[in-house]
Amino acid sequence: xxxxxxxxxxxxxxxxxxxxxxxxxxxxxxxxxxxxxxxxxxxxxxxxxxxxxxxxxxxxxxxxxxxxxxxxxxxxxxxxxxxxxxxxxxxxxxxxxxxxxxxxxxxxxxxxxxxxxxxxxxxxxxxxxxxxxxxxxxxxxxxxxxxxxxxxxxxxxxxxxxxxxxxxxxxxxxxxxxxxxxxxxxxxxxxxxxxxxxxxxxxxxxxxxxxxxxxxxxxxxxxxxxxxxxxxxxxxxxxxxxxxxxxxxxxxxxxxxxxxxxxxxxxxxxxxxxxxxxxxxxxxxxxxxxxxxxxxxxxxxxxxxxxxxxxxxxxxxxxxx
Length: 321
Prior knowledge:
Blueprint: E1 6-9, H1 17-27, E2 34-38, H2 40-49, E3 56-58, E4 74-78, H3 91-110, E5 116-119, H4 124-128, H5 135-142, E6 149-153, E7 158-161, H6 168-174, H7 177-195, E8 201-204, H8 218-232, E9 237-241, H9 243-246, H10 249-252, E10 257-260, H11 263-274, E11 279-283, E12 288-292, H12 309-320
Parallel strand pairs: 1-2, 1-5, 2-4, 3-4, 5-12, 7-10, 8-9, 8-10
Antiparallel strand pairs: 6-11, 11-12
């Protein structure tokens, strides 16, 4: 009896994802079955272009339990991609294709076929079209989960932004004591469930050096009270710390997770430290959703020069859990 399969949505048709998927398959033979949700036409086209050879097993969506799955072939659920030119795909076509891919994955997750999902990169501008800040929020809405958080995970150090894809001028308006407490509890519970220990969490301030300026006092009236409340509840949390020095080696080494107030405050340093060796995990959902920590990178499409490390880390994580 094998462990629950990993569903992998290929994402944007014109992206580096299939290239890094092929490279990942070359690097390691995973025990957990992988199921690619993708256009077979697109898959074959990219295999030819990138000179990758492997058998393809077409899966019947309604008979998945009948298969004895392994990774000797690419197991694929074919999603129709209605385009005659795979190099020029209009947003209306790619959006429909991506949505259909997610719908298939959602159906299988709700049926308890698996609890493991990886999605390749998508264009937030075209696919989400302003309806959601990111895929994290889209998934929360779909599964009626209000309390969710983005965790950029590396076993040495992870980060969590309290607000995600917000313009900077809106960050301070969104912040609240309860929101900070909610996200940190989610992070703590995730570590306890997955790794069996309470993480040491550092919390960053919002303003430079955590200083207050005139009437702008978020660090004093929002962040510090949230930390004090969490300490009383016996969470292993410290701060607020100044963001400009927190990622220095001697400071970050004392913590498992650094929580920041906005997206780039923590994602910029974590990507600088680990480059592609980090994964984006949505925590709080009734399943584990991971995406490689990079975008479609259409500029590199078809060049066979992209780094597969983040996808490898994503599959490795689910292969063990």
